[in-house]
Design brief:
By secondary structure, the protein is of the alpha/beta class. It is built from nine helices and seven strands, in the order βαβααββααββαααβα. It folds into two domains: about 120 residues, P-loop containing nucleotide triphosphate hydrolases (Rossmann fold, 3-Layer(aba) Sandwich), CATH 3.40.50.300; about 70 residues, no CATH class. It binds dephospho coenzyme A and adenosine-5'-triphosphate. It comes from Roseicyclus marinus.
Amino acid sequence: MTFRLGLTGSIGMGKSTTAAMFRELGVPVWDADDTVHRLYAKGGAAVAPVAAILPEAIRGGAVDRDVLRAAMKTDPELLGRLERVVHPLVAADRAQFCRDHGQAPLVVLDIPLLFETGGQAGVDAVLVVTTDPETQRARVMARPGMTEALFDQIVARQVPDAEKRARADHVIETKTLEQTRASVADLVKRLSGGGDGDA
Ligand SMILES: CC(C)(COP(=O)(O)OP(=O)(O)OC[C@H]1O[C@@H](n2cnc3c(N)ncnc32)[C@H](O)[C@@H]1O)[C@@H](O)C(=O)NCCC(=O)NCCS
Ligand SMILES: Nc1ncnc2c1ncn2[C@@H]1O[C@H](COP(=O)(O)OP(=O)(O)OP(=O)(O)O)[C@@H](O)[C@H]1O
């Protein structure tokens, strides 16, 4: 039986970095954000439905995220409309990944919106990554194309960090890479042993 560990955390909390550490240890990782990137790429299944919502977002046959971000700044309804077409496609991709890795003892499902989309029903335990709000904001603001307003808009759609931590089975701090790597190794050891992870 495969143990499915859901990995989540608010924007900039360190999901991708932590997911990479699971991969380094040989754990198969599925990534919701990466899936959206594939769906938005040329030939991807989200291109046509996004074109129906915002035709100018299609550049060279792919969805252009810069255009989406710019449009979101003036249209607060846009993100919700995107979610309605993108989320079912993401869910189908995730189901296929779980079928493909049915023999693995442990898989990680990196899902930014796990709590927001009821994703905890499809996993055996939830790992939340976290850091303090100042570090979170500084990390996200360091990204090109990000503004304070867009950061606040995205955070407002996410379950607050304190609630995520309260609902988690496991919590890992992402203060330093060394500390996080050690916590990940410890968790993999516990969850790959065939136990229920509570030990
Ligand atoms: C808003 C968009 C244009 C921003 O693109 P960009 O390349 O700048 O960032 P990226 O996609 O890497 O997302 C960064 C982070 O933003 C947060 N985020 C993204 N979409 C959402 C959302 N719908 N609600 C809340 N947070 C979100 C997540 O924490 C994510 O890890 C893009 O994320 C998008 O098209 N989102 C809609 C699809 C969606 O809901 N994706 C979420 C994963 S299923
Ligand atoms: N364990 C850690 N120790 C120190 N710095 C970290 C750690 N994890 C992440 N970071 C820093 O935080 C930044 C954001 O991390 P990451 O991209 O993993 O976040 P994320 O939760 O996947 O973000 P998003 O929700 O926006 O996709 C990284 O660029 C890195 O500099």
